[in-house]
Write a structure and sequence with these properties.
Strand content: 5-15%
Oligomer: single chain
Structural class: alpha/beta
Helix content: 40-55%
Number of helices: 17
C-alpha cells in the first residue's frame, strides 16, 4: 500500500493549538511505518487554511492519487484534510470509486466501509461547523470594534496599530508624506503625478507587513485620496462610523479632493457599454483591457479593445484589436467546446450506473444519520436528567452539553448536505451538452449582455496579447483539455458501443459530478437555462 503523508498547519487562530508541521510529520511517519508493507510515496507539507477550497499542494496530491501514484493518505486528523464540504466530499467520492482505498489518522481509526465513510463525513462536518462558528465569532468581534470607533485589521497607509494600547496611531514616517499627497491633490496635481513624486522623490512605500517596502501603485494612490478614513470615519458596507483615530484632513479638504478627482462616493454612470470590458487582462503588462468607439473619415463607427495603460512605468506596447476580430476568436473557442455525441452517450450510461449506486448509498447514510441523531438526543435527555438529580455539577453538565450540541449540529448538517439528487446531475449534464452545441448560435445572435454571460459561463483567465485572445475553459466544458485525440473508436464515434474515453474524458465526468454536488450547481443550471432558446427553457422547466 502506497501512502501520501499530508501535514498542514494554518496561520489562523483555528490552528494555534494544533501540533506543528514537524511534530505532525513525526507522528504520521511512526503511524505508517508500523504498517507492514506500507510505502511512503512523498511527504507533503502545506501552510494554508482549509476553510475554503483551493489548496495547491492538496489539489496536486488528489490529482496524483487519481492518476494511480498512491492508494492512501496518512495525516494527523481528519480536519487536516478538509474543513469545507467540497474537499471532504471529494475525498469521500474517491473512496466510493475505489481510487482512494485507505485513510490513516493518528487520533482516529478509519475503516473503508459504509459506516466508516459515514463517520468520516460527520467528522468533516464537525470541522466545518467549528470553522463556521469561529468565523461568526470573529465577525462579531470586528463589528463590535468598529462600533467602538476602531477599524479592525491593518489601517491604511499613514497609520499604524499600537499593540500596547490596541488603538490606531499616526505612522511617524508615513503620516506627513500622505498629508503632502493630499496637499498636492488640492494644488491640482493628478493622481499619476502624485504617485510618481511619492515613489521617486519621497521613496514612499506601503505600510509594514508582509509586503512592506513596495512602492505605492497608482490604484493605491486613488484609494488613499478617496478613503474617508483620513477624515476620521470608518466606512463599511455603505455605513459610516465615527472613528476615534486622529484625522489627517478636514471634511472640506476631502470633498475638494473628490471634486478634483471627479470621483464622488457613488460611481459615475458610464457613457458607453461594452460586452467584454472588465473580463480581459493585457498579456504584456497585466493591466485591464478597455474599449472605445472610433469613427473614421467617412463616419463609420468601430469598437476597439486595447490595454488601459494605467500602470506606472513604461507605456504598454500592445496594440488595439477590432471587436469583430475579437469575437471571431471567441466563436472559434466556443466551437471547440461542442461535446461529441459519442462522449454524451457514454456520459449518460455512466450517469445511470452512478445514480443507482448513489441512491443506495444515500439511503444507507440517511438511516445511519437518523439513528445517530436519535441516539444523541437520548444522551442529551439523559444528561439533563442527571443534572436535575444533582448527580453532576454545572461544569460537567456544560462541557458535555456543548459536546452533544456540536454533534447534533453536525448531524443536522449531514441531513441537509446530502449528495446531489440524480435529477440534478442529469439536468446539469444534459444542460452542458445541449448548451455546448448551441453556444456559437446563441453568442452570434445575442446582445451584449448575453455574449458576456456566455463567456463568463464557459471560460476564465482571459488574456489578450499580440491581438490573440487566450481563454481557459471552465471545468464543466473542458472535456478536451490538451489532447485533441481524446476520442478513440471507429469512424466518427457515433456509436457509444465503439466509444472508448481517454483519461481526460474521465476527468471531465468527475468534474461534472463534483460540481453537481456543490452549492453552485443550482446557479449553474439557472444560468444555462436562461441562455438557452425560449423553447428549450420551457422544456427544461
Amino acid at each position: 500500500m502506497k501512502y501520501f503523508l499530508y501535514c498542514r498547519k494554518s496561520t489562523e487562530s483555528e490552528d494555534r493549538q494544533v501540533l506543528s508541521i514537524e511534530s505532525q510529520r513525526r507522528e504520521v511517519e511512526r503511524l505508517v511505518l508500523a504498517v507492514p508493507g506500507a510505502e511512503i510515496v512523498e511527504i507533503i507539507e502545506e501552510s494554508r487554511s482549509a476553510m475554503t477550497p483551493g489548496r495547491p499542494r492538496f489539489d496536486a496530491m488528489v490529482a496524483r492519487i487519481e492518476n494511480g501514484e498512491a492508494e492512501g493518505i496518512a495525516t494527523w486528523a481528519p480536519d487536516r484534510l478538509a474543513r469545507n464540504s467540497i474537499d471532504g466530499g471529494r475525498l469521500i467520492y474517491l473512496l466510493d470509486q475505489g481510487v482512494l482505498t485507505d485513510l490513516k489518522f493518528s487520533n482516529y481509526g478509519f475503516e473503508n466501509n459504509s459506516q466508516g465513510k459515514f463517520m468520516l463525513q460527520i467528522m468533516f462536518g464537525q470541522s466545518k461547523y467549528y470553522s463556521d462558528a469561529l468565523s461568526e465569532n470573529v465577525k462579531r468581534g470586528i463589528r463590535t470594534k468598529r462600533e467602538h470607533g476602531w477599524q479592525a485589521g491593518r489601517p491604511p497607509v499613514g497609520y499604524l496599530n499600537d499593540p500596547v494600547t490596541r488603538t490606531i496611531v499616526p505612522d511617524p514616517e508615513r503620516f506627513p508624506l500622505v498629508r503632502r499627497m493630499f496637499d498636492l491633490a488640492l494644488a491640482g496635481q493628478s493622481p499619476k503625478q502624485i504617485a510618481v513624486i511619492a515613489r521617486d522623490d519621497w521613496g514612499l512605500t506601503s505600510s509594514p507587513g508582509k509586503r512592506m517596502g513596495r512602492p505605492l501603485a497608482l490604484a493605491t494612490v486613488y484609494k488613499i485620496l478617496s478613503n474617508r478614513f483620513y477624515v476620521g470615519e470608518i466606512t463599511h458596507a455603505g455605513t459610516a462610523y465615527p472613528g476615534r483615530h486622529r484625522p489627517m484632513i478636514t471634511h472640506a479638504e476631502f470633498e475638494s479632493v473628490q471634486a478634483r478627482l471627479r470621483r464622488p462616493d457613488r460611481p459615475r454612470p458610464s457613457r458607453h457599454r461594452f460586452a467584454f470590458t472588465g473580463l480581459i487582462r493585457c498579456g504584456a503588462c497585466g493591466g485591464m483591457v478597455t474599449a472605445e468607439h472610433k469613427t473614421n473619415a467617412y463616419g463609420a463607427r468601430y469598437v476597439y479593445y486595447h490595454c488601459a495603460k494605467r500602470r506606472l512605468g513604461p507605456r504598454c506596447p500592445e496594440r488595439s484589436i477590432e471587436v469583430r476580430d475579437l469575437e471571431r476568436q471567441i466563436v472559434a473557442f466556443l466551437s471547440g467546446l461542442t461535446v461529441p455525441d459519442g462522449l454524451a452517450d457514454w456520459g449518460r450510461d455512466r450517469l445511470r450506473v452512478t445514480s443507482k449506486a448513489e441512491a443506495a448509498f444515500r439511503e444507507v447514510r440517511r438511516k445511519a444519520v437518523d439513528k445517530a441523531f436519535a441516539a444523541t438526543e437520548a444522551q442529551l435527555r439523559e444528561l439533563t436528567g442527571l443534572r436535575l438529580r444533582r448527580m453532576i455539577d454545572d461544569a460537567e453538565f456544560g462541557a458535555e452539553r456543548q459536546r452533544l450540541d456540536r454533534e447534533l449540529a453536525a448531524l443536522r448538517q449531514g441531513r441537509t448536505d446530502a449528495a446531489a439528487k440524480p435529477s440534478e446531475v442529469i439536468e446539469l449534464f444534459e444542460g452542458v451538452v445541449s448548451f455546448s452545441k448551441q453556444a456559437v448560435d446563441r453568442f452570434s445572435s445575442g446582445d451584449q449582455t448575453t455574449r458576456r454571460r456566455i463567456l463568463e459561463l464557459v471560460g476564465s483567465n482571459f488574456s489578450l496579447r499580440g491581438k490573440k485572445l487566450t481563454i481557459q475553459a471552465a471545468n464543466l466544458f473542458r472535456w478536451r483539455r490538451e489532447n485533441p485525440n481524446i476520442l478513440s473508436g471507429r469512424g466518427q464515434v457515433e456509436d457509444v458501443r465503439t466509444f472508448r474515453p481517454r483519461g481526460e474524458a474521465q476527468v471531465w465526468f468527475k468534474e461534472m459530478l463534483a460540481h453537481a454536488d456543490s452549492r453552485e450547481c443550482d446557479e449553474t443550471i439557472k444560468d444555462i437555462r436562461s441562455l438557452m432558446p425560449p423553447a428549450e427553457q420551457a422544456m427544461a422547466a
